[in-house]
Amino acid sequence: MDMIESSKQRAVSSMEFFLRNFAYVPDDRLEWTPTPTSKTPIRIAAHTALFAGRFANMIRTRQLPSPDNLSEWIAKGEAEEVALTCRSEMERVFREGTAEVIAALDTLGPEEVESSLDSGQGWSMPMTQLMGLPGWHATLHAGQIDYLQTCWDDQKIYVG
Questions:
Q1: pLDDT range class, residue 46, cuts 50, 70, 90
Q2: Is 118 helix (H, G, I), strand (E, B) or coil?
Q3: Which three-class secondary structure state does DSSP give residue 117?
Q4: pTM of the prediction?
Q5: Where are the domains of the chain?
Q6: Which of 83, 77, 86 is nearest to 58 (CA)?
Q7: 53, 99 contact by CB (below 8 A)
Q8: CA 85/CA 31 separation, integer angstroms
Q9: How far apart are CA 8 and CA 80, in angstroms?
Q10: CATH no., domain 3-151
């Protein structure tokens, strides 16, 4: 299997893994937080869902966020995360963003897969790393949801 196909499969399977784990967060725990400054489960889910579309845009445009407006880009993302408070809306955004990732990956040719994107900050990111980020990112944040579940003493092991 080639790099594009494996990146597409990982993006989808990691999204499904995240959504399956998140489905076990009870509604009364969506806004729960272990400390006043920690992110809630729904905020972690919103962040994860919204970044699928952000990664798709980076792949499609072959550009990382510009350092000239990075703080503005981050602030916009945080505002979008805070506004996304509904479980079903988060899932819709996540599925649409992952579909955008698949479509963006399909636009890459062999030369582009081997390219690197300039950060404008003295470092570059290989396209192959960016291609893997949607799947890696979802798996990373699924671990945060698992940890929060242990914080409220949910010790069940969920399968399937």
A1: very high
A2: strand
A3: strand
A4: 0.93
A5: 3-151
A6: 77
A7: no
A8: 9
A9: 25
A10: 1.20.120.450
The least confident of 31-35, 37-41, 86-90, 149-153 is 149-153
DSSP 28-85: GGTT--SSTTSPPHHHHHHHHHHHHHHHHHHHHHT-PPPGGGHHHHHHHHHHHHHH--
Distance CA 35, CA 32 (A): 9
Does 27 have pLDDT greater than 60? yes
CA distance 57 to 89: 20
Residue 43 near residue 86 (C-beta atoms within 8 A): no
Query: What pLDDT score does 120 carry?
Result: 86
pLDDT at 20: 95
Locate 158 and state its tokens: 């969920």
Please enumerate in sequence order all residues whose Cβ is within 8 A of that of 63, keeping only pairs 6 or more positions apart, or say none: 117
